[in-house]
Amino acid sequence: MPRRILLQTTILPEPDNWHIGRFSRLRDHLASLEGVVVTARDRQAPPGQTDPVLGGLDRADFDQLWLFAVDEGDGLNGEECAAIGRFRQAGGGLMVTRDHMDLGVSVCTLGGVGAAHYFHSKNPDPDDSRNCRDDPDTPNIDWPNYHSGANGDVQAVELVGAPHPLFAGVTRLPAHPHEGAVGAPPDDPSARVIARGVSKATRRPFNIAVAFEASRDGGRALAQSTFHHYCDYNLDPRDGCPSFVSEPPGDGIIRDPGAQAEALRYFENLARWLSG
What we know:
- The chain contains five helices and twelve strands.
- The chain is an alpha/beta fold.
- It has one domain (about 5-275): Class I glutamine amidotransferase (GATase) domain (Rossmann fold, 3-Layer(aba) Sandwich), CATH 3.40.50.
- It is globular.
């Protein structure tokens, strides 16, 4: 049986935004893998209304949902969150990623995995020492915003605890000037932090990925600090970005093809691991 993966953003198809077309390298690489069928889409219902695919996810023929929360708070409604919860409870694999401050804050209402995402206005990091602005170059973005490097550059990944299969053959990921914050919910024994980065601005460590093993709550899941680990612009900045991105890009990932190969390996590992 093929693995059916849904790549889904939480915004309408807006050309000057992080729409699903800006994840085309991820889409194409997953689709090239044997036994993998990929559907890539933006939401089609306006905020407040229920998207037909997200709202019926538990009845759809998908094995995995990779959710890119690129909204400013209105990306998911209660009916959609409930359907995603039932999808995972039935054994579906789930990857949920967001970005800095309150970008993607609608995922807070997702059961289980939502609790792993910390934002500025909701579900702040319980470790108050980390609730501070880290990126000094973008003053309009408040915490959390960890500076792992320029878009187009590469960051080293520190594995936490026993090496996780997601990082087999992977020591680096694409960098981003202001990553969000994730952590393992203390009341969920299935969750643990598996990877950290270090801010290039403050040398402060921050969590990159939280893995949830399969449990009575459902299938495997991953909470990740930023969708920029998956984005075309970060895999090759020559692919372009929305007009509101103000930071100059780097070129580390262009100069070192092995770094992009590691990112693609990470995508493969994730597709395999989420399937059990």
